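Appendix C: a fully annotated inverse folding record. The material below is reproduced so that readers can follow the format used throughout the book. The structure is listed first as tokens, followed by the designed sequence.
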């Protein structure tokens, strides 16, 4: 379950940022871009903070 929650949080974080490329520099990223490993780190930090405050993420039954 934590992996599924982390994936959902990561998707939310990624959706808040946009990547823009430049023709002359394909490695350039705007200030509104976040690396996948940074996104994973943020998601893990959010999950840890929620757990520390007594919150639990559970999947609703289908």
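Designed amino acids, in order:
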């Amino acid at each position: 379950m934590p992996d599924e929650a982390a994936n959902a949080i990561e998707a939310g974080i990624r959706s808040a940022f946009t990547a823009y490329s430049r023709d002359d520099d394909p490695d350039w990223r705007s200030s509104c871009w976040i690396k996948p490993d940074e996104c994973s780190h943020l998601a893990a930090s959010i999950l840890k903070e929620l757990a520390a405050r007594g919150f639990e993420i559970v999947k609703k039954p289908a």
